[in-house]
Amino acid sequence: MMAIAPAPERLLDHRGNPRASFEISLGYEQARLGMAFHEAGHAVLAMAYGMCVLTSEVIAWSPEVDEWTLTGNTAFNTHDLNPWHFAAQHAAGEIAQVQYLLTYGLWTPERALACNADHDREQAIDVLADFGYDLGRDHTPQDGKSWGMVRGMARRKIGYLWREIRTVALAMDERTILTGDDIATLTGMTNPPLSGGSV
């Protein structure tokens, strides 16, 4: 764990605003593993949908003695991508983290709520809007999809890929950061070649 916080820009959402933070009633090791599941959800679904994963990591630091803070980051290439797969990959982090709580016998309503990742939803909405696709927060737009529909897509895919997500999360918890090639080696999945821009 780092003694000081990472660079401030690493703690901002895609709009440049600070990401929301939540208290979670778990010890450091359990919370860290939960964050690893969150990022593994993003990374494994991204790769499964044909995105080139660059890195996926847990970021932990101690702002004060006996205190800790966690976040994470997954960087991937998004060139020539199905927009709904992009959105489902964004939904996957929160869903995988809640599934971790359920699987490990740690789930409570409060802990599930603390997995909230509205910044992932808002980034998906904004990016899709830039390309002319309508993703609704709490409704199904005409010719579009709702966030609930996208979450359903992600939940189904996570069910098929839970073994891979678990494998990546455990390795990320141990190593802190994994490259896309590390993830491909661990899971037997294919990390497509890099092209275009990354998120």
Structure description:
The chain is of the alpha+beta class and 199 residues long. The protein has seven helices and five strands, in the order αββαααββααβα. Strands 2-1-5 form a three-stranded antiparallel sheet. Strands 3-4 form a two-stranded parallel sheet. The chain is globular, with a radius of gyration of 16 Å. The two termini are 25 Å apart.
List the uncertain runs. Answer: none
Task: Identify the strand order in the major beta sheet.
Answer: 2-1-5
Arithmetic mean of pLDDT: 90
Shape: globular
C-alpha end-to-end distance: 25 Å
Put simply, the count of helices is 7
Give me the secondary-structure category.
alpha+beta
**Number of E-type strands:** 5
Rg calculated over all Cα atoms:
16 Å
SSE sequence, one letter per element: HEEHHHEEHHEH
Assign a percent range to the helix content: 40-55%
Described by strand count, sense and barrel closure, the largest sheet is:
3 strands, antiparallel
